[in-house]
């Protein structure tokens, strides 16, 4: 049955019997037969089939979540039973928001795979919250504060932010000596889908916020970083985005006496979430430990 369940998950993922057969290196008739046998064993129809599209039935949706957990737990059991000295192997599906994925995760994957050549990684860069069970994701990396109590999570790094601008921009515009000065500058903004954008600051026990505006908004930090490097304006971005550019002198930290925050309370953290399986997937821990080590080594530390 387990083999049929794996075939079922691949059909759901690709939305087609023929595509699943190609990926699994099977004859389309064999995939069809596996699904037929699975439906017979479950005494339930899993798919609504037509010449144009393939849709899950209500029972199919119910089975999907359980099937994902079944395969994940089975893989974890097999891994936990292997010799601890054996070279790690298996598959890992990772979902990570675009800017952190491109700047912090993607650069370390080649090193990780060279170290563990029997591990295969599938990564998706997307600025949305994914359903780990529904989309068969092993590990998701997000920013903010964990909310879903049904998932396990661990913090990767605190999401401290810095207000920065290029030397060229600062040489051509008014000085930024206090947070209120930012209202006179072109600020490059993370799009929070609000009519007004405030930047928050903390100094000792004093908190303040400043209404800022500018000619560029983005849901991800990468476009804002590129614009700041080109001298377009002032940006508030996370440590892991700007650290290399501050160290190289391409960006200059402003308002060093103040701690910038993404909201009134804090800037949250970069954290990883994964499903609460009965059995642990050692590849997840292996990858997270590697990511934490490499990311912490690159961070910009406040020395002022």
From TrEMBL:
Residues 1-57 form the HTH lysR-type domain. InterPro entries: LysR-type_TF_proteobact-type (IPR058163), LysR_HTH_N (IPR000847), LysR_subst-bd (IPR005119), WH-like_DNA-bd_sf (IPR036388), WH_DNA-bd_sf (IPR036390). Keywords: DNA-binding, Transcription, Transcription regulation. The keyword Transcription regulation applies. It holds the Pfam family LysR_substrate. PROSITE patterns: HTH_LYSR. The keyword Plastid does not apply. PANTHER family: HTH-TYPE TRANSCRIPTIONAL ACTIVATOR TTDR-RELATED, HTH-TYPE TRANSCRIPTIONAL REGULATOR. Belongs to the LysR transcriptional regulatory family. This is LysR family transcriptional regulator. It comes from Pseudoalteromonas fuliginea. The lineage of its organism: Bacteria, Pseudomonadati, Pseudomonadota, Gammaproteobacteria, Alteromonadales.
């Amino acid at each position: 049955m387990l083999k049929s369940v794996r075939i079922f998950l691949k059909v759901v993922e690709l939305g087609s019997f023929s595509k699943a057969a190609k990926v699994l290196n099977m004859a389309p008739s064999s995939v069809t037969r596996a699904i037929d046998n699975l439906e017979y064993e479950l005494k339930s129809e899993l798919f609504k089939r037509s010449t144009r599209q393939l849709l899950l039935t209500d029972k199919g949706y119910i089975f999907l979540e359980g099937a994902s957990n079944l395969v994940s737990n089975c893989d974890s059991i097999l891994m936990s039973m292997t010799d601890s000295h054996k070279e790690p192997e298996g598959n890992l599906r990772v979902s990570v928001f675009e800017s952190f994925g491109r700047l912090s995760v993607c650069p370390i994957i080649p090193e990780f795979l060279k170290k563990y050549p029997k591990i295969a990684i599938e990564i998706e860069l997307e600025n949305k919250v994914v359903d780990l069970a529904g989309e068969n994701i092993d590990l998701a990396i997000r920013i903010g504060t964990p909310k879903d109590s049904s998932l396990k999570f661990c913090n990767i790094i605190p999401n401290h932010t810095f207000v920065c601008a290029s030397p060229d921009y600062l040489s051509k515009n008014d000085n930024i000596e206090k947070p209120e000065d930012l209202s006179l500058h072109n600020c490059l903004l993370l799009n929070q889908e609000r009519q007004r954008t405030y930047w928050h600051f903390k100094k000792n026990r004093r908190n303040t916020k400043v209404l800022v505006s500018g000619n560029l908004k983005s849901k991800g930090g990468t476009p804002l970083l590129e614009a700041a490097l080109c001298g377009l304006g002032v940006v508030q971005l996370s440590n892991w985005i700007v650290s290399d550019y501050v160290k190289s002198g391409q960006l200059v930290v402003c308002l060093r006496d103040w701690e910038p925050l993404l909201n009134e309370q804090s800037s949250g953290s970069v954290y990883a979430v994964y499903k609460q399986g009965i059995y642990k997937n050692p590849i997840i821990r292996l990858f997270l430990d590697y990511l934490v080590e490499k990311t912490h080594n690159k961070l910009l530390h406040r020395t002022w």
